[in-house]
Specification:
Elements: E1 6-9, E2 13-19, H1 22-28, E3 35-37, H2 43-50, E4 56-60, H3 62-74, E5 80-83, E6 85-87, H4 90-101, E7 105-106, E8 109-111, E9 117-124, E10 127-133, H5 148-156, E11 159-163, H6 171-184, E12 187-191, H7 195-199, H8 201-210, E13 216-220, H9 221-230, H10 238-247, E14 258-263, E15 266-272, E16 275-279, H11 295-308, H12 313-327
Parallel strand pairs: 1-5, 1-11, 2-9, 3-10, 5-7, 6-8, 11-12, 12-13, 13-14
Antiparallel strand pairs: 2-4, 9-10, 14-15, 15-16
């Protein structure tokens, strides 16, 4: 069997998902559509979620979501792989099983001393807020990339993708992966992922350090605007921000960066080397929306599936929009057995 074409590197988390009240948002200071790392004050939230009658456990973590969706879109065994750190516990086993069930090759590092990471997905009026306790996910080490099975996939991949959340865990791994893609002519892809990634100076520094090696940068309008504000660009104009991000220097001057900014129900903004194009998304009625959790991750998954098939940007955005439209009609980042989509 050929080595997987797409490798995801990220934070494997078990999503603990349930509908909550405004009171829960107020109690824990949660914002709709936001993602944060849990502090001490958030710890009781997990127990409250587990106790809810409608609680669902879903394999999560932004990068793993995208990789599962890419594998689903491709419908070809062995096309994708994923690496991250889990604990030696029930949650970890659930995550490894979910990857295997999705047809993703799981290359998990196991930390026997730390519990598997978890994410409280609190849903209020179909809008989600994510509160993450990284747990074992925080202990991923670049040395794991030297394990023969992992090294083989790293070197054979055509695309490597990490959500921005991985910046908080293993910048060294991102350095190795991005430089590997530079060497082999593969594509290195990142996601802004959340406002805090671009607002916290040490995290933004890692993002900017990797930017010269980043062939595809994803994000949504809120994250793009947060980046512009953080670096003093004094604009909220998404096409302008995407343009500037696309023009940041590349390590290989012959390459152009593609910046892809989703805007919910509004068209997706794509900037390539300073040129902007808008691509439509699939409009859904309010009644069709079940849960926005994972829509952005699903868009990336569909996009990467088309990209690895050699499709152009329009086709990549179309595949991304399709995947997002399916996932948004499900609870969490889940999908039906087969896509009604062919490449």
């Amino acid at each position: 069997m050929a080595s997987p074409a797409i490798l995801g590197m990220g934070n494997p988390l078990l999503d603990i998902s349930a509908d909550v009240t405004q009171a829960v948002f107020d109690k824990y200071g949660l914002q709709p559509g936001n993602a944060i790392l849990a502090e001490e004050k958030h710890m009781p939230l997990y127990g409250e979620m587990v106790a809810k009658p409608d609680v669902k456990y879903i394999a999560g973590g932004a990068t793993q979501n995208s990789i599962r969706v890419a594998q689903w879109m491709l419908q070809e065994p062995g096309m994708t792989a994923y690496t991250g750190c889990i604990g030696d516990d029930d949650y970890g086993k659930k995550l490894a099983a979910a990857a295997a069930d999705a047809g993703v090759l799981g290359l998990f590092m196991v930390d026997k001393s730390t519990a598997t990471g978890k994410c409280a997905v609190t849903i209020l009026d179909k809008e989600r807020s994510l509160t993450t306790d990284l747990g074992a996910a925080n202990n991923y080490k670049a040395t794991h990339l030297a394990v023969p099975e992992v090294k083989k996939v790293l070197e054979g991949a055509k695309i490597i993708y990490s959500a921005g959340f991985f910046i908080t865990v293993s910048p060294d791994s991102m350095k190795i992966a991005s430089e590997q893609m530079q060497k082999t002519g593969g594509k290195y892809c990142m996601n802004l992922s959340a406002p805090f990634i671009v607002q916290v100076p040490p995290f933004r520094a890692v993002l900017e350090d990797r930017m010269p090696y980043c062939d595809y940068l994803f994000g949504n309008e809120t994250e793009a605007q947060a980046y512009a504000e953080a670096v003093g660009w004094e604009t909220t104009d998404v096409p302008f921000i995407a343009t500037r991000l696309s023009l940041m220097a590349m390590a290989n001057p012959d390459k152009k960066r593609t910046v892809v900014i989703t805007q919910g129900a509004d068209p997706t903004v794509v900037a390539i080397g300073g040129h902007v194009t808008l691509y439509p998304v699939l409009k859904l009625s309010k009644e069709q929306l079940v849960d926005t959790n994972g829509a952005g991750d699903a868009f990336v998954g569909g996009f990467l599936a088309a990209l690895v098939k050699g499709k152009d940007i329009a086709a990549c955005c179309k595949a991304g929009a399709y995947a997002a439209s399916v996932v948004i009609q499900q609870s969490g980042c889940t999908y039906p057995p087969k896509p009604e989509y062919t490449f």
